[in-house]
Design a protein that fits this description.
38% of the residues lie in helices and 13% in strands. By secondary structure, it is α/β, with parallel strands linked by helices. Helix 7 links the parallel strand 5 and strand 6.
C-alpha cells in the first residue's frame, strides 16, 4: 500500500490509463484543428470530437447535436444561467435555485441580481433535500429558470431531479441541473431537464473540458453566447476546440458507463463499512446527509470537539477535504452545511471523504484506523475556537 492515500475524488480524479491512451494520438498524430474542414488533419480531429459528442450524449439520453463542449462545469453553468437570462429576459426576470448549490450557480445568480433579476434561494431540509413541492411553491409568472444540482459535491445528497423537473417544465419554465458529480456515478438522463452541466475531470478524464446539454426540442432552448469569437459549437461557445480533452471526456464517459453499476456497489460497500466502524468507535460522529439518497462513494462527517483543519494536519497520510475544493482556503464554514442546519462549530468540525475507482479495501482499513486513533486523541484536548 502506497502512502498518502487519496480520498478526495470529488475534488478531482486521476486520468484513467484507458482514457490517456485514447487521448495521446490527438496530441501527436491527429493534432489538427477540428474546425479545419479542408484537409485530413482537421478531418481526423473532427472525427474524434464527433465520437466524443456521441459518447457524452449517449450517457445522457440526448442527441449529439444537443451537446456543447466547454472549458468545464463552471463555464457550462455560467453559459446556461446567463445565456438563458439574456435570451428570455422579455419573458420574466426571476430565477429559482437552492441554497446548497455550487458557487458557480450561486455566484452567477448573484451577478444577475446586480442587473435587476430576482433570485429565490430555497432552503433545504436537515437531510440536504429540497422537495418538489417547495420548488413549485417558489415559481411565479416571472420565473424563467430553475437550477437544482443533481448530486451535491460536499455531501453526495441526490436531489429528486426527475420529479422537480417534471413540475417545473409543466409550467413552461426551463430546468437546469448541475450533474458534475452525478455523471458516471449514478443513472441520469435529460428526460425532465432542459439544460445539464458536467465536466470530465470528476470521472477520470482530463481537466479543462466540460459540456452543456441544451435541449433542441419541446422546447428548443435559446442561449445568448457568453464568449464571442469564431462561432464554434453552432455559435453557442466560440473558441478552438480542445480536441485531446474532448476525446478524453468521451472516453472517460464510455469507461464509466460500462462499469457504473458494479463500481457503485463496490464503493458503497467500502463507504458503508467505513462509516459503520467510525460510528462504533466514535459515538458522537455525525454523517451529514445520511437520511437522504447519497452518491455511493461520499462521506461527509462531523466530529464534535475536533477542528477538521487539525484532523487534516494530523492525518498526513490521508488526502481529504474540509469542503468543496473550489472554496478551500477561504476560511468560511461550508454554505452547504450551514444550509443543512449545522452550526459554525459543527461545520468547522467536518471532513469530506470521497472514494474512487482506485480505492482499495486495504486503504480504507488504514484510513479508518488512522482516523479513529487521531480523533480520539484530539477529542481529549481542549478546543480553542477561532473564527
Amino acid at each position: 500500500m502506497k502512502l498518502p492515500i487519496y480520498l478526495d475524488f470529488n475534488a478531482t480524479t486521476p486520468v484513467d490509463p484507458r482514457v490517456l491512451e485514447r487521448m495521446m494520438p490527438y496530441f501527436t498524430m491527429h493534432y489538427g484543428n477540428a474546425s479545419s474542414k479542408g484537409h485530413a488533419f482537421g478531418w481526423a480531429a473532427a472525427e474524434g470530437v464527433t465520437q466524443a459528442r456521441e459518447q457524452v450524449a449517449g450517457a445522457l439520453g440526448a442527441e449529439p447535436a444537443e451537446i456543447v463542449f466547454t472549458g468545464g462545469a463552471t463555464e457550462s453553468l455560467n453559459l446556461a444561467i446567463k445565456g438563458v437570462a439574456s435570451a428570455y429576459r422579455s419573458k420574466g426576470r426571476h430565477l429559482v435555485t437552492v441554497a446548497t448549490e455550487h458557487s458557480a450557480v450561486l455566484k452567477s445568480c448573484t451577478a444577475l441580481e446586480r442587473e435587476g433579476w430576482a433570485v429565490t434561494r430555497l432552503p433545504v431540509e436537515k437531510s440536504g433535500l429540497v422537495s418538489p413541492e417547495a420548488v413549485e411553491a417558489a415559481l411565479t409568472d416571472e420565473t424563467v429558470l430553475v437550477a437544482v444540482m443533481w448530486a451535491n459535491n460536499e455531501t453526495g445528497v441526490i436531489q429528486p431531479i426527475r420529479e422537480i423537473g417534471e413540475c417545473v417544465r409543466s409550467r413552461g419554465i426551463l430546468m437546469l441541473t448541475d450533474a458534475t458529480q452525478a455523471l458516471g456515478k449514478i443513472p441520469i438522463d435529460v428526460e425532465q431537464v432542459d439544460l445539464l452541466a458536467c465536466t470530465a475531470h470528476k470521472l477520470y478524464g482530463p481537466k479543462g473540458v466540460g459540456a452543456l446539454y441544451v435541449r433542441r426540442r419541446q422546447p428548443r432552448v435559446r442561449l445568448v453566447p457568453q464568449i464571442d469569437g469564431g462561432g464554434q459549437e453552432e455559435g453557442v461557445r466560440s473558441g478552438t476546440l480542445n480536441t485531446p480533452g474532448i476525446v478524453g471526456f468521451g472516453a472517460a464517459v464510455a469507461v464509466a458507463m460500462e462499469g457504473m453499476a458494479q463500481e457503485g456497489q463496490r464503493l458503497g460497500r467500502l463507504r458503508d463499512t467505513f462509516e459503520s466502524r467510525l460510528r462504533d468507535a466514535l459515538p458522537g460522529m455525525r454523517v451529514n446527509g445520511a437520511e437522504a439518497p447519497r452518491l455511493p462513494h461520499v462521506s461527509n462527517l462531523t466530529f464534535p470537539g475536533v477542528r477538521s483543519a487539525h484532523l487534516v494536519t494530523e492525518l498526513r497520510d490521508l488526502a481529504m477535504s474540509t469542503g468543496s475544493a473550489c472554496s478551500s482556503g477561504i476560511g468560511q464554514p461550508s454554505h452547504v452545511l450551514k444550509a443543512m442546519g449545522l452550526s459554525d462549530e459543527a461545520a468547522y468540525a467536518t471532513l469530506r471523504i470521497s472514494l474512487g475507482r482506485f480505492t482499495t479495501e486495504e486503504e480504507m482499513n488504514h484510513a479508518t484506523n488512522s482516523m479513529i486513533s487521531v480523533v480520539e486523541r484530539l477529542q481529549k484536548k481542549p478546543v480553542v475556537t477561532i473564527y
